[in-house]
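S1.2 Input.
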Amino acid sequence: MRRGAPPCTGKALAPPGFAEATQGRPGTQAGKPALPRRFGFHVSIAGGIGRVLERVVERHCTTAQMFTSSPSQWRTVPVDPEEAAALREGLAAADIRPHFVHAIYLLNLASPDKELWRRSVRHLAEELRRAVLVGAAGVVLHLGSVGEGGRAWDGVRRVAKALREVRERAQVALPLILENSAGAGYTLGGTPEQIGEMMALAESAEPLWLCLDTAHSFAAGLSVHTAEGLEEVLGRVVAALGPERLGVLHLNDSRYEFGTHRDRHWHIGKGCIGREGLARIVNHPRLKGLPMIMETPGTVEEDRRNMFVVRRMLPGEERWKLRRRR
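S1.3 Output.
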């Protein structure tokens, strides 16, 4: 998610049911005109989910992402219904939508370790139910690793089986959103084709969406930083997953160079993808209708700067001034 280090030297793709998943939810304000573009951050839940609203407002978000528990622990605390209701109502009043939940980092749906695999399935099913309570539009998840010596195809099948079991356990129709990886080591999800194989084998787990992370794509050797490369990558996404799978974009610059398989996010325009490459992504006709979540490191002021930089990338007719929300 938020990883940092010094910087290095036609038609929008809309997921099936996206309108239904956001329209009428607690995070949606009926009758209020939607803002033309949706940008936001992954924000901390330190101090409880009751702190999420103030954090997204002070960062001038119009979409957002959050955990519902510590990302590095299996243990969870029940979501307080009153806090969840207040969050839903506050996000609706501020017209911050859609918002997403990110699953914890410990999940490994590709693991050959049966106990870890089963624990991951149980936790993700519970995460879906928790996401419903906070009014989220879906749960974003990392796919995991097959471990040293593991075979990728076996991991693909384990992920697909896990997704099916999660859906059966949770009995919740909220989208599971598979995030592409940097392709390091034995980690799965480094290519659209591999994620497409998982989805094809997990048909009963629908709805399944894709979260495309720009920093992960760049690190994995997908040329999203060039005009020609971006067209090729989006063409591969459509060919492997279909034209309506892409549900959310993680908009991050990369601390490390292209194709290194090193996952380190950096500030917008200050990393190796660069301002020109990210501006091309932000304004691409196939992507501009998607909610775009930044996971850049740093302080509130750094987040505000990143938001300002992103909005300055918009054409003049779409650009609108940041304003402090009360």
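S1.4 Remarks. The CA atoms of residues 308 and 322 lie 7 Å apart.
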